[in-house]
Structure formats: C-alpha cells, structure tokens
Amino acid sequence: MIDELRKQLDEGSVTSEELFEEAVKSAKEVQDTYNPFVTILDKYKIRRRANSILTGIPYTLKDNISTSNILTTASSNILKDYVPVYDATVYQKLKKAGAVLVGKTTLDELAMGGTGTTAATGVVRNPWNSNCLIGGSSAGSAVSVALGIVPFSIGSDTGDSIRKPASFGGVVGFKPTYGRISRYGLFAFASSLDHVGVFTRSVRDAAIVTDIIKGYDAKDMTSLKDEDKSYTDELEKPLTHKKLCYIKEICDINQYNDPKVIETLRKFHDFIDKCRNQGFTVDEVSFDKVLLDAIYPTYMIISCAEATSNNANLTGIQFGPRGDGNSIDEVMFSARTKGFSELIKRRFVLGSYILQKENQEKLFLNACRCRRLIVDRVNELFKDYDGIILPASGGGAPSFDSSSEQVTDQQLILENHMAIGNFGGFPSITIPFTFVKDMPVGINITGRVMEDDILLHIANEVEKITGLRGLKVGDRHV
Prior knowledge:
Layout: H1 2-11, H2 16-34, E1 37-40, E2 58-62, H3 89-97, E3 100-105, E4 125-126, E5 129-133, H4 139-146, E6 153-157, H5 163-169, E7 172-175, E8 195-200, H6 203-213, H7 231-234, E9 243-247, H8 248-251, H9 259-277, E10 281-285, H10 289-310, H11 328-339, H12 342-355, H13 357-381, E11 387-391, H14 409-416, H15 420-423, E12 428-436, E13 439-447, H16 452-466
Parallel strand pairs: 2-3, 2-6, 9-10, 9-11
Antiparallel strand pairs: 1-3, 4-5, 6-8, 7-8, 7-12, 11-13, 12-13
C-alpha cells in the first residue's frame, strides 16, 4: 500500500524505477489471462522536482482519461488509433505529484456497461476466478489494484462503474462528491452523472490519492472549490459521526429466494451487529418501493440521452477510421456502424428516441423528475443519519459460463441502489467486507454531499471491523 511503498522509497530499499519495472513486468505477465490493459508503458517517466507522498509510486489510469502522446481509446474501435494532444487535469495533477503511470486500463466500451465484457480488445476477467466477471465499466483498473500490480488506479463512475468492480474485485472503490475531482479530459458519458474516482486497497490510500487530485479546475465549470482540508489527516481524529441506516426494502431477507443474495444479506446483518458493537448506531429505515424500482429505468433514460448527445462527434470524420460512402451522411453511417459494438448502438438508438421532441416530456423530463424525488428522499434520511450502508452487490461476481451463475433480478436489487450516489452527486465508497462462495463482496456507504471527509472517516472505522484492509488476490480469508 502507499504508506509502505513511501517508506521503502524514503529508506532507499527500493527505487521508483524498480517499482515501475516490476509493475510493468507484472502487467505483461497477467495481460493474456485477465486483459486489464489497453496500453502498458515501457518508458519510465517521473517529474524529477516532485515532492509528495505519491512521488515515485506507480499507478494505472482508465483509458477514457486523456493522456497526451499516449493512446487513449475508451476501449472502442472508433477510437482505436486516437492519441490525444492534451492531458486530463487528474493526469496533470498526478504527474505534478510525481506519480508514475504504468498503463491505461481496459473498460467497457465508452464506459457504457457494467460487466467488463464489451471492450474492443476483449473481455476483462476477475483475478479471484478467471471464469468470473470483474464488473465495469472500470474493469481493468479494479484488476490492476486487486492483483497488486499498482497500489492505486484512477477510474470513472457514472452509475456504479468504480464501486461494483471494487466489490467483485475485493478492493476499495471511492467516488467523491460530484465536482470534487475535475472531469476535464474525461471522455464524457453522461455529464450530469459522471465522476472521477479511485481504486485502492485501503480507505486511507483512497484519502491519500483524493487529497492529491481534488480541487477546483477552471477548465471544468462543475468542479468545486477545495476546502483546504486534508482527508488523510481527518482520519486520525476521533470519529463523532457514527449514525448509519440501511434500507428495509433492499435488505429484507424474506423477500428473496436467490441463495447468493440470502447468504450476502445474512452476512450483511451479522456485520451490522458488529458495527453496533463497535459504537455505531445503525437503524433500519423505509424507502418508497416505487422509487427504488424507478432507479434503473431513470438511470438508463438519462444516461442514454446524455451519452447520445456527448458522443455525437464520433462520426469517423473528426475521430476514428473514415467510413465508406459518397456523402457525409454515408461516411458517418458507415463509420458508426463499424466503429461501435451492438450494445453501444442500442444505447445511442435509445438515447435518440428519448431526445425526440415528442418523447422528451414523457421520457426524459419524467426521468429527471424521478431522479429529483429519489434524491429528495435520500436527503431526508441525511437529516438524521451520517450515511447509508448497504451491500454493494448481490453476491460474489457471476461466472461467464454457468447459466446458474448469471446475475438475477434479485441480485440487481442489491446493486442498482448505487446509482443514487450519481443521481445526487453524493460521495460513495465500497470496501470489501466478506466472501460469498470464495468470492469477495463489498459493502457500500454513501454520505452527504460535500462531506467526503466524514464519509472516508466512517469507512475507515468500518474497514477496521472487516479485518480485510489491504486485501489482494491470493490473501487467505475466513
């Protein structure tokens, strides 16, 4: 983890270049099996005058974040040869801090997916079991941290794209308050939902990295002014915010018959009792079932509509391989037909339909109203509670090849709730808390907007109760 590497670097027992070379070697060794990388870098580059806790420490970056002179494809054929001429702000900040980029990680195409199976370069596999999904869209980032190739990775989260693969991969995934980290240079998926966030193997490491990359950016009008507060330092103070709740309609075991869901919830309730024994107040609360059922369709309508608009420039003219045709329309039609997977084409067709004038009121605007009702209800809960704690998935990662292991509707009930963090821009974190059928499962905590420090502080204390801090593939577990 970061503190350990920092100590080794400062003592001279290892050099930054040695860490980089070892990470590159490990990345190449696992690439054929797990496919976590689009690009693995061979040249060691560091800002020599940097002096931060991250100086000399290797990391990976999701391949939908712009890096000048480094291939950046968003795992889509239409961008397979795209090399940006500018850096994303998050990448600039990490370079300035002296962090060393090892590679760009695989994602679901254009970040539109939750499985890690739709990248142009192929499927990303779970390192705990290569026959299982890792989840998405930040699939490769999760794998690179779970395998211990790097201590942290930067991803993006539009519905649960950091937090679900964190659950399936047994790592920490943190999505801060909307605007806390600049999105300048992040390829837009759904602009009102997109967040930049981090994967680590401890909550402390998540705080360390976020301290480096957060802050106002004049190039991103949605970015927030920094509070001049160290999240890492806040972890050392006594925790006074210890009142949590979980949602009855999601966590009532009696409504389920899926064995993985039942086992997950039994372990969740046992863990909640452990939290209570450690001084947390954790109450069961009720949430309108109609609003819970509306989360997924609301997310799909808004995200598809915004994605269609944001990606209208991917025509084969400005970006991507030039299509065939005798007119601009024919060239664009050819490029987009060949350049996108079937999933992406379906989402763009759906988004175009939603945005048609005659459909906007019934579909898009109604989805926006549902979003507001959901966020209002969450804010009501936050008047009494410091955070909402829930399972991050309905069990361990499902397998690719067993029909009995496909994700069920009941499992999705325990996953769809994470989109609430994107609807309201709430900070939200997933940390590993148990194993189900030998696969890691995470617990998710969501807090109030602008109170990232409090959420991280709560998560740090909860992490101590799990006993799984620093978990990586191969570690023994009970």
